[in-house]
């Protein structure tokens, strides 16, 4: 009997099954490893400072992974709550005034504070949208992340009357951690509906993991009624 030309060899089937298993198991294993690694790192920073009489592990005689992280989250939340009132703001301002007098420390502190305020501020629009710009030549499009409107000297020197500049981040493939900060007129940007997370997956996969897109349904156009000249209706 002649071999079936459509039959897949056993070695190919085993290889495909192995690759499918890797695709399923690798992300799960890496996620678990990173999660427990972060928990252990947080515990190593917080647990040494917990008094023995307040440490529940001494009473239960069992290890409690994540205890340090939970305590750190609670303390950070309390500090944030206290920092919003008058007394807390006064203490923070006093501490910042001391840091601003230190030549090297003030530069590091100002830079880190600006980064965290930009990324974590609730009303910030940083990296909440994706768009397309023509790069590196007309007719060739590149995916960018919208970080906000250009401000300060850049907006004053480059912004033309009636033309708003937008700062965008052009990330490379497949590692989108480095890239170019560019200032582009808003009219030159094609805004996309995909989220920054979907855009990052698209970049990392080299265009293989394109997000699903459902075009918005067109709104029905209201047709005006034509009056009947005889009946007046």
What are its keywords?
233 residues; alpha+beta; 3 domains; five-stranded antiparallel sheet; 7 helices
Give a verbal description of the structure.
This protein has 3 domains: 10-82; 85-124; 129-204, no CATH class. With 233 residues, it is an alpha+beta fold. The mean pLDDT is 80. Helix 1 (10-46) packs across helix 3. The chain has helices at residues 10-46, 57-60, 67-82, 86-99, 103-120, 152-158, 196-204, and strands at residues 129-134, 141-149, 165-170, 180-185, 190-192. Pfam families: DUF502 (PF04367).
Concise account of the structure shown:
The protein has 233 residues and is of the alpha+beta class.
Secondary-structure-derived class: alpha+beta
What radius of gyration results from the CA coordinates? 28 Å
Instruction: Summarize the main sheet.
Output: 5 strands, antiparallel
SSE series: HHHHHEEHEEEH
Beta-strand segment tally? 5
Measured between the Cα atoms of the first and last residue, the distance is: 83 Å
User: What average pLDDT do the residues reach?
Assistant: 80
Percent of residues in helices comes to 40-55%
Overall outline: flat
Q: How many structural domains can be distinguished in the coordinates? A: 3
Residues in β-strands, percent: 5-15%
Assembly state (oligomeric): single chain
Number of helices: 7
State the strand order across the main sheet: 4-3-2-1-5
Low-pLDDT runs of 5+ residues are: none
Pfam family, one: DUF502
Keywords: Membrane, Transmembrane, Transmembrane helix
Protein name: DUF502 domain-containing protein
Organism: Pseudorhizobium endolithicum
